[in-house]
Automatic annotation (TrEMBL), chain A:
One annotated GO biological process: action potential
Biological source species: Camelus ferus
Keywords associated with the record: Cell membrane, Cell projection, Ion channel, Ion transport, Membrane, Metal-binding, Phosphoprotein, Potassium, Potassium channel, Potassium transport, Signal, Transmembrane, Transmembrane helix, Transport, Voltage-gated channel, Zinc
Residue segments, region Disordered: 525-565, 615-655
Name used for this protein in its record: Potassium voltage-gated channel subfamily D member 3 isoform X3
All copies of domain BTB, residue ranges: 40-139
Membrane topology: Multi-pass membrane protein
From TrEMBL, chain B:
Region Disordered, residue ranges: 1-31
Protein name (database record): Kv channel-interacting protein 2 isoform X2
Lineage: Eukaryota, Metazoa, Chordata, Craniata, Vertebrata
Organism of provenance: Camelus ferus (Wild bactrian camel)
A Gene Ontology BP annotation from the UniProt entry: regulation of potassium ion transmembrane transport
Compositional bias of kind Basic and acidic residues: 1-17
Domain EF-hand: 122-157, 158-193, 206-241
Matches recorded under PANTHER family: CALCIUM BINDING PROTEINS, KV CHANNEL-INTERACTING PROTEIN 2
Signal sequence interval, chain numbering: none
UniProt similarity note: Belongs to the recoverin family.
Cell location: Cell membrane
UniProt GO molecular function: calcium ion binding; potassium channel activity; potassium channel regulator activity
Organism superkingdom: Eukaryota
GO cellular component: voltage-gated potassium channel complex
Keyword Transit peptide: no
Amino acid sequence: MAAGVAAWLPFARAAAIGWMPVANCPMPLAPADKNKRQDELIVLNVSGRRFQTWRTTLERYPDTLLGSTEKEFFFNEDTKEYFFDRDPEVFRCVLNFYRTGKLHYPRYECISAYDDELAFYGILPEIIGDCCYEEYKDRKRENAERLMDDNDSENNQESMPSLSFRQTMWRAFENPHTSTLALVFYYVTGFFIAVSVITNVVETVPCGTVPGSKELPCGERYSVAFFCLDTACVMIFTVEYLLRLFAAPSRYRFIRSVMSIIDVVAIMPYYIGLVMTNNEDVSGAFVTLRVFRVFRIFKFSRHSQGLRILGYTLKSCASELGFLLFSLTMAIIIFATVMFYAEKGSSASKFTSIPASFWYTIVTMTTLGYGDMVPKTIAGKIFGSICSLSGVLVIALPVPVIVSNFSRIYHQNQRADKRRAQKKARLARIRVAKTGSSNAYLHSKRNGLLNEALELMGTPEEEHMGKTASLIESQHHHLLHCLEKTTGLSYLVDDPLLSVRTSTIKNHEFIDEQMFEQNCMESSMQNYPSTRSPSLSSHPGLTTTCCSRRSKKTTHLPNSNLPATRLRSMQELSTIHIQGSEQPSLTTSRSSLNLKADDGLRPNCKTSQITTAIISIPTPPALTPEGESRPPPASPGPNTNIPSIASNVVKVSAL
Amino acid sequence: MRGQSRKESLSDSRDLDGSYDQLTGHPPGPTKKALKQRFLKLLPCCGPQALPSVSENSVEDEFELSTVCHRPEGLEQLQEQTKFTRKELQVLYRGFKNECPSGIVNEENFKQIYSQFFPQGDSSTYATFLFNAFDTNHDGSVSFEDFVAGLSVILRGTIDDRLNWAFNLYDLNKDGCITKEEMLDIMKSIYDMMGKYTYPALREEAPREHVESFFQKMDRNKDGVVTVEEFIESCQKDENIMRSMQLFDNVI
């Protein structure tokens, strides 16, 4: 039932009065309208733009968000309106759908944004009206093609270490840029295809005369050389074909594919020739078979993308080509008939039959005009001119369609290539953003600890210094921290970025720093074969970074793909020493540390909650895909180290 | 000249057979009249003639109808004339105007709207009867006043008013009495609305039998027609009918 007609339901129900007197049975009870509300205006606030409509308008489609009780989730009690934090432009279309029953697709809108909005409001895109449906479908198809391209290229470039030999080989065949061997193979086959084609061509060139006999083509004069060349080429092609057949994921499909048929047709004549060289009467047939050797030139389409595009275009324009052919045939027959009868009268006319006139018609319609057949009568000339004019028209009509198809496909390919090239840069940027966010986590950990320190030292007015993280960030970091605690591992991060950030911390913590340095040096001397301690003293300004942090760090995010060369060789430790001078209760046992930290946590809910002490040996095995065998004590590290640090400081590793 | 362009597919060969006009999409038959009119207009000798302006199946006429805009009387008058409240009238008008922006409903539109509620069967005949019942001044169109007047009787009127209205609906030629043929037409149209796929399957004689039982109930003096008094009297005696009449109290 269409939307607007719902308003006429009362009329339809009233019209039922005509049935009542003739009814034999009693009528069923009418459904009671429990919430008999007067129709009210409801306000829909979409990102600040207020739309107003009747409640019943929205209730026309009860299976959408606005028509059902789902919209109550968005009701804002204070302003008594429904607030949606979405795009107001698309909402306009959505609301019009409720009003008119027709959903339109605005052309300026991005297709995926529009789809997202429709999905949010629970409207199926299939009900887009006829006026806009075609455009919508076209854009959707383009988008899908683009996504498919992206996915394909993604799949191709994923380094899947678990590919079998067969799969690697297939990938090498399909995409020669994957490895040097594939590239070599690619060029070698290309070279041999060229050699083979040139051989076929040169074979037929007359090569000078042997005295006493007529002119020979080169093929017969140097038959042995040509035979050897041919054999070599065919051997290479055969090997290539067999290798492809072996590597193909679906051999049946591969055999049926066009390229494989071309391969087979290209090498068959040679083998057939080998088999039946001796039989005289079939050698004639064998000679014709040689024609098929020219198919080797189609093997180049594996090497040339343009050729493939051309082939694909022709395939996709099959209907236009068919139409062209059909209309040409019709015109040829018509004009050939007419010319034949027109020229019948003239003597010594070349138009001996209608099929003979076909040649004239074709030559004229394609504006070739060889001149071997010319009409002599006046009628013939008139019809001949009409024929050539119409030929131009008939051919000119379907050609632009084919051209535009080719252009579209070609440009699509160009765009795909461009996207693949841009992908690298994109991925690099994404990686930087990811490391940035994890750096933020560790940075805020340190900040949080610093806050703790300051509070412990009784400088509450400096608390706000550390509150650089927003609430969301701090919650996110807390989440990461909880994960660390759950697994007993911790994140490592790349240093250079971090050092930039930490330098922004003010210098009032300088007091800490020296003690901190000392302790750091001590501990690092104690536990780690670190050679970095001297470097700390040269960087007094950096407060939260320990000596050992001066060294090169690597990013060890669980999902990172960084190569093994950047793996840190040294364990890293960055500690923040919280001088617990006025808190003698600080002990070094982990449990009490935790207790203390928890106590400290409660009043400090507002700050970063990363305050529990961790001293973790970095590079836990799970985080290093490169699989350096870290000593197992790595994971229970947090526990084992603490007893070894018998000092009155709480070392917190801000990793 | 008309500025209308319809995109028709190449596969449509009807235009070659002369049964279909590429431009307007109409069978060329009726437009012959329009063509003739246009041709006559071109001739200098013929002055402006009184060409029939409202005729079926002509593109120009569609233009004319769609530019006609009917405005109902004011809300206060309607409130006096009908038994609806102001708010109810507002709701009704909004629904009415949504479907019929021009302000009036013609029979085609009426039938189309009504058929949306009965997707399975064929409700066009019954819709025609309804249209004739609503169109009290018989001018071929139902304006909002007619519409609301009819609804007022059905939904807010007394039982007698409603029965009167029903009688008026059944009385196709409005001569004050219902004959068996009229009743049969009505019955068939009601059964048509059910469609073909019913359980139990519709029998051929079912409408006729139904009419017979109706007349047995209603026709007191057995004269073959049912007058309005007989009708109302018989209905008042029937419990079912009286109860069903009360269903209309809560429709709006």
